[in-house]
Amino acid sequence: MANRPNTRKFVGLPSKEQVLEFIKSSDTTVGKREIAKHFRLKGQEKIALKALLKDMAEEGLIDGRKSAFHRMGGLPKVTVLRIVEIDEGEPVAIPETCQPDDATPPPRLRVIEKKKQAALRTGDRILARTEEAGRGWIAHPMKKLPSQEGAVLGVIELDGSGKAWLAPVDKKIRNSSPVSDTGGAEEGQLVLAEPAGRSPRAGVKVIEVLGDPLAPRSYSLIAIHKFGIPHTFSDLVLKEANAAARLPVSEDKREDLTHVPILAIDPADARDHDDAIFAEPDGKGGFNALVAIADVSYYVRPGGALDREARRRGNSVYFPDRVVPMLPEVLSADACSLRQDEPRAAMVCHMHISAEGLVSNWRFSRAIVKIAENVAYEDAQERIDSGKAGDNLKHLFAAWKALESARSERDPLELEIPERRVMLDEQGRIAEIAVRERLDAHRVVEDFMIAANVAAAKALEAKASPVVYRIHEPPTREKLIALREYFETIGKKLALGQVITPGLFNRMMKDISDEGEKALVMEAVLRSQTQAYYGPQNVGHFGLALGSYAHFTSPIRRYADLLVHRALVDAYGLEQPKPKGTLDLPPATGLSDRDREDLTRITDAISLTERRAMEAERDTIDRYVAAWLSARVGEVFDCRITGVQKFGFFATIVRLGGDGLVPVSSLGREFFRHDEAAHALIGEDTGQRYAVGDVLKLRLAEANPLTGALKFEPVDSEGQPIEPRGRRPQPKPRRDRQGKHMVGKRGRPGNIRHQGRGKKKR
Q: 7-71 has which fold?
């Protein structure tokens, strides 16, 4: 213990000041025993110490639970904390011994996360070191603890005695929990529950009944609750959004571009339209082009309730059946959406595209635009293919051909990653699941957006203005070494002494004619890539082979783009005078002082919300795929191995998706060795090999819509399941005191999973 006073000078019972000083200077948890030992108290002095500590607690000098004490308003040096909210990506925690509704507000600590650790979420428990910093407290996580708090989603089930259990819908949670209070929920209903007490034995109590877990829209609802995605707007935010939507757009400082026939090309089922494009020949082989983007910064101003909510959400989240928007629909689907024949406020990137596809002479302006037409990708492609396209569309495709030529010279990373599309009928039921077709019309819009994003980044750099970069770092040396070791197992070479570029990987894949081998290499290259993120320090974009890149083109659905718009407003003097009669809205549309001085905090936050959205969207698609496949259990599919572990391998159905497990126990009697470097399971006797990228036929054994989990099993040459000849000896069933078989751990149903609506599996 550091800086402790010399105990030899203490005689008898210490004073309150001496106790407080000892608690403050101690590096470890302090209880009555530690205080007595430090002050060398014995016999009756220990009894007097107990009374002294009680008096100090009643006077508000110290706070303690059970045997631990600390200064009132202070904290132990090491303690258990519970995450209660995420504020702009930064976890905020309170001591686990406190409750949010305690009479005395609990101390709130900013949690400083380590970069290599998984992001913390609301409800997580951590053991952390605490320290006082300025006027507040910060915590440094030491380790994440098993969850005891926080809401959990599940389905109500009844066992043979009629006792209620909660079967979790998260496939990572294996066991059911006893339900102490059903809250009126019936068997088979999806519910939100929370712990009924501090001990796991106390079970859970239902706090909200969500309805039929297999009904349309339930799968996205599960993801919304599971990942803690904000999905309702407060009255204050809606009021401000409605006021913003009434702002006039015909201001003096806007450029009038309503005469330009700009096209908005989007998915047929697009819920918002935030970008539109135009190009016309310049008479010299090149093109003059416009990229018009909804001027969200005019409506969403820094410092207001609307802006704070958008920062908290970070981005919109798109599900097959709904969108959870970053902005209220009065803005995202109406006032800010670039609709045909309706005047709209826009931020416009004017640029010149040379005959070689090089972009130059860009400038940015605030303008009024009137979209000539909203066109679906498929319709645009059909018009071009059939020769029925008008001049506007023809010019766009011609300009894109030039951009494509420059893109080929740049040689960005080309990975064929299929996108699954879930199509629903009018009742919200699954009509079809298929891989979204990749059209030239998609590439046209994509390359125009990339050009505008590069122009935005370089325009801000030219003014030495703050930039929110979209960063994709090159693969780390550790990942490249792992990639080289893997390539060696499949007879390929990767020299680490050369400069690693996207083109290097492209050439490697281009030289492979065998589709199976190409899939192997592509999977390996994909695993070697780092995750893209937002940040104020430019590191470039490896995947796109670009030195400067920012997101400018989707401010309706990404807060990063909104920040780029605000920076452009400041850098190029695009501020608009505040319209009269709008005193309830913040005045400025540029960056706030806080963001102008330091963008790191918000870029870290929106990087986390982006990851959360991606996980939630993928989680929901997995549930839809499992629901779609639940009627096809027993069928044999062509599958590709996507991951290998010592307990088995994961595979996905070719051109459909949906990852499922093939347990190693289903591979037969032979022992399979896990070759970690080769990402393969190898049979010790026959040399039978299951490796990442392999395509093989697998039988669908299970499909659980509630968890999104699939399970496959291998088949023989006749398409029949391989008989598991080497099952491990099963433990004898446990019995209770009456000699009856127990269903699962401690007699609970355990891993019960629904295969139908509200049906009980006995």
A: Arc Repressor Mutant, subunit A (1.10.10)
Q: Report residue 174 as tokens.
A: 């294996």
Can you tell me which residue has the tokens 């339900």? 179
Q: Which two tokens stand for residue 78?
A: 């090491």
Burial group, residue 363, by CB count within 10 angstroms (0-12, 13-18, 19+): exposed
Q: Give 646-670 as a DSSP string.
A: TTEEEEEETTT--EEEEEGGGG-SS
Are 305 and 240 in contact by the 8 Å Cβ rule? The answer is yes
The Cβ-side half-sphere exposure at 563, using a 13 Å CA radius, reads 33
Locate all alpha helices (DSSP H) within 473-550, ordered by sequence: 477-489, 502-510, 515-528
Looking up tokens 């009137």, which residue turns up? 370
Q: What is the mean pLDDT of residues 541-547?
A: 96
> Could you say which DSSP state residue 237 is in?
H
Q: What are phi and psi of 290, to 5 degrees?
A: -130, 140
748 pLDDT tier (thresholds 50, 70, 90)? very low
Q: Which parts of 514-664 are beta strand (E)?
A: 533-535, 636-645, 648-653, 659-663
Determine what percent of the chain falls in helix, strand and coil, rounding each to the nearest 5.
Answer: 30, 25, 45
Query: Cα–Cα distances in Å, from 467 out to 314, 458, 594?
Result: 17, 9, 14
Q: Same CATH fold, 633-728 and 78-145?
A: yes
Helix (H, G, I), strand (E, B) or coil at 639: strand
Q: Is the dihedral of CA 631, 636, 638, 642 positive or negative?
A: positive
* Mean pLDDT of the 599-619 span: 91
How far is the C-alpha of 253 from the C-alpha of 322, rounded, in Å? 37
Q: Which of 129-138, 200-209, 571-580, 645-654 has the highest mean pLDDT?
A: 645-654
Cα–Cα dist 507/512, whole Å: 9
- Within 10 angstroms of residue 534's Cβ, the number of other Cβ atoms is 25
* Closest C-alpha among 197, 304, 208 to residue 247: 304
Residue 138, both tokens: 């910060």
Alpha helices by DSSP H, listed for 314-467, are 329-330, 377-386, 391-410, 440-462
CB 346 within 8 A of CB 282: no
Q: What predicted TM-score, i.e. pTM, was given to this entire model?
A: 0.76
Sign of CA dihedral 752, 758, 760, 761: negative
**Structure tokens that stand for 520 in this block:** 């192997």
Phi and psi angles of residue 355, each rounded to the nearest 5 degrees, phi first = -60, -25
Higher-pLDDT residue of 13 and 644 is 644
- Beta strand extents in 629-735 (DSSP E only): 636-645, 648-653, 659-663, 672-675, 680-683, 689-691, 695-704, 709-714
Q: Which CATH number fits domain 633-728: 3.30.70.1450, 2.40.50.140, 2.30.30.100, 2.30.110.10?
A: 2.40.50.140
The ranges assigned to domains in the chain are: 7-71, 78-145, 235-470+538-618, 474-529, 633-728
Tell me which of 117-121, 203-207, 353-357, 721-725 is least confident.
721-725
726, 718 contact by CB (below 8 A): no
Three-class SS of residue 368?
A: strand
The residues, ordered by sequence, that sit 6+ positions from 97 with a Cβ below 8 Å of its Cβ are 65, 80
